[in-house]
Amino acid sequence: MQDTSSIEAVLSTVRHLLRERGLRYRDLAEQIGVAEVTIKRWMRASDLSLQRLARISGALGMDVFSLLALAGQGRERSFQLSDEVEAALVAEPLVHAVWQALRHGHCASAVARAYQLDPAQWLQILLRLDALALIELHPGERIRLLHQGVHNWRRGGPLARQERPRFLAWCADQLQGGNKRIATASDRSVSPAFADEATAELEALARRWRDRAYRDEISLPPGERIRIRWVLLLDSLPIFPDPGGA
Predict the structure, then answer these.
(1) Which CATH superfamily is 4-72 part of?
(2) How far is residue 111 from each of residues 25, 89, 97, measured CA to CA in Å?
């Protein structure tokens, strides 16, 4: 028996990826080498062969397994580390940077080159990551990442404490004209209804952005991604301003 709900989840993911990349069925058809009507028929099918799925995923620049994984977990997944592991990463910033780069999908040789690590240094870092249970190191220096998804720092934990001054400085720089794509801030007096609506809109926007970023991280190779940072923040303030400046 065909699992139609799973097939529809895969087709929905394909449609989502096409929209996000500004592609039409016609573009997909040209990539695969079939007629547009054929693509439309495939996208309405209650069953989809592995061969067709492989051709679609290949045209999207990914393999079948990545597409299936994306269909099964299109919403962002996240994880946290223990205080002890966070403290170790704070104490060993190069180990932290290497782990971050590996998590972002960069191949081992590219990471070693980026940080100018010789074979002995590279192995030492891999052994340290293995000891911290962040990777599983196999013979031939094959690496398996032990955590999938977005790394959320522990609230008030070692990484949050370390990064707080840098993050605040970055925010101030962006608002004062740093190298930004967009930055805006405003202190206003509004109705409670406005505040509630703005909160709901920002929550929905944040969810949409995070899920889309997660899909990009799963489906696109490192060479087709750029690194960005965003902050969405809305808070209530005292009715009467603080003379100290708040």
Answers:
(1) lambda repressor-like DNA-binding domains (1.10.260.40)
(2) 37, 17, 9
